[in-house]
């Protein structure tokens, strides 16, 4: 039988059916993290440090333990002894230290103890009975100050091998890359601009707080229900932190109310399990919004210096950048990612980038949609915009002139395969938005953006039922409609209706390891695995048909949901539909399933170009986004409506990051805006409609040409909006967010 | 502290529960009545994920005490559909992909239904301001606004 691995004509892919879980989600029936309960369930609550940096001298839990409603109290002593290692080598230790403080509280909100009680109110009340004696230490929350010689040391020995000698112990990872000779390149430039930029930490801002329900027995066997982007990483991490075998903990992912990278690790899950082990009852923990802000993954804040040389014709002759990222009290700030992505859209002869991962007394940063990339793009694309302005060049033309294409040696090393940056820029140039007239007080900005995309460990199973329907089990939580795209890809291969496929997010006991729903990998990797699993089932279907017809399996092919003879020589048989084969499969060889497990490597890098119009009110400093267009290469859009949704969502988060959102710390090192009233994410009345253009330059690494689309959409907005605002206000904005006070201050300085 | 007895109507059904005076209506709906459609996204009335109506008035149920529900009539997302027939807003939200993760969807549907009952012909601006108390972090609101306005148009044509 012949199975063509590549496909460009589609029956189901590219259509826009209703999502399979739509009904559950519009009726309130869908079960999210906090929606589960269990018989005998207790409620957990976590005591958190009010200090940014303090030695924990003593924790007295006796009063809490004596309370009649309290069934268990845990501190760090109730977790496994996980070995400390420098950098990211000791990530289990880092996560454990973040989940429950050891010798020191490292940030405002750091967990120090937890209780389980008979009700949520009783648990909250019991926290007040725990007495903690702190010795307050000097703290630092700013990235540049954390690198200065006199900065308080967060933790000695946390730096890994990459850090050059002589750096402050808070610098824990170092990255340097590039090619060519930047000094020679700058000597060729007609104009060089060097400038510094700052972005503040923002939160992923998923509307669903972290929530879980755990049960762990003294036999080392456990069950965990939690809202997560990846239940296998939750399984592995919880097992390590509790000292049990990974396979003995079964984790089921709830529906997930947003993640954006912030639910790729654990916070409360090991605590619930530790409390459960001690109380011998199931324990549920649900974070408050304030806990989410204080103790879960904000993105890194950044301080950056970028220098770019350009010739009069717009050719970039050299580019270099230094990117310092602060990621809280643990290694992991993506200074390396920022550095590698910053110049990635361009075909450069001379480029050099340096990234620093710096610790401070803030919560442990977590991934946020293309982690690290938006900050670097903000700095680089702002400088390119300024160069275009000073040299009198069109910003799209200059980007087209320097755009990376197939064969370009990327700023971070490899040579690109087929990519779609040029196509997005050409689409931008041709889009009516780019030439639409602007009103007084308005400015237009554009920016390109890049993200790597990711493959990752993937395991999928597909089982056919006797009636010819199919159940598909994938291991990547459905964050934004991926059940629909999986069913479309399976339908495409099997040739049965989309509606006949039931997609389930399987638990950790049902499939092999699956990497997290991150890295824009779900439609790419779980999609690829779905296609391969469906083809595996089709192979078996063809074998059964061949046996029935008594012809060799090579003489059977699969077409439109039927086995058919592969040619006139194979014999004269009517097409045999899938349901005819499955109807008696029990007697013809047993159940028919398809499986696929791999770590696919061909994710295919992704580029986008955004066009933004902004209007700045000089009286108040308030910025309105008046028009927004996202253009991005999707490779192949499986369900175009959900692809548009990813583009729009990325843009909206970028608008928040650019204009409003920031972590604000007081002199005391405490977070001052830990509720949505003070940490203001964009609301409906803040935004215009967000126009989208889906460019399709097929990814050679996927059977249907898919490139992930989830993350790239947040890379261009910071820069595109900064360019628009700078054009509208007549002053270059170098610090985000461009909140009204910052814009007013910049206008005042400019008018001097 | 002893618990208080509350008798109320939820989606047309008479219900009773005992609650601590500190518990919110949201806590009571979710934990005592097993109506987990309303979500707690913030607990401070900023995100709207817990939106319900009390005697026809749109409120954040996290800002209403459970005891305040006594004698009132509460409508939640679970009561929007008429049996197995979805409300036009629910159908349109699925058709338009006006949800990605779906956590804000119950609150937005309750709020949007309340809007259309008060104003069957809202402008885009009116729709955006009415829903400004309902945070969505996934969609950028584009498809939500379109779904609400298109539903309004269809309901006007049907009536």
> What is the percent of helical residues of chain A?
25-40%
Count the beta strands of chain B: 5
| Sheet/helix structural class of chain A | alpha+beta
- Which architecture of the largest domain in chain B per CATH? Roll
Arrangement of strands in the largest sheet of chain B: 2-1-5-3-4
For the largest beta-sheet of chain A, the strand count, sense and barrel status come to:
7 strands, mixed
CATH topology title of the domain at 372-453 and 604-751 in chain A: Aldehyde Oxidoreductase, domain 4
Largest sheet, strands/sense/barrel of chain B = 5 strands, mixed
- Mean pLDDT, all residues of chain B: 97
Greatest chain-chain interface? A-B, 59 and 60 residues
Counting DSSP E segments of at least 2 residues, the number of strands of chain A comes to 26
Percentage of helical residues of chain B? Answer: 25-40%
CATH superfamily of the largest domain in chain B: Beta-grasp domain
- CATH level 1 name of the largest domain in chain B: Alpha Beta
Unreliable sequence segments of chain A: none
Q: What are the secondary-structure elements of chain B, in order, as H or E?
A: EEHEEEHHHH
Protein name (chain A): Oxidoreductase
InterPro entries (chain A): Ald_Oxase/Xan_DH_a/b, Ald_Oxase/Xan_DH_a/b_sf, Ald_Oxase/xanthine_DH-like, AldOxase/xan_DH_MoCoBD1, AldOxase/xan_DH_MoCoBD2, AldOxase/xan_DH_Mopterin-bd_sf
Keywords (chain A): Molybdenum, Oxidoreductase
Pfam families (chain A): Ald_Xan_dh_C, MoCoBD_1, MoCoBD_2
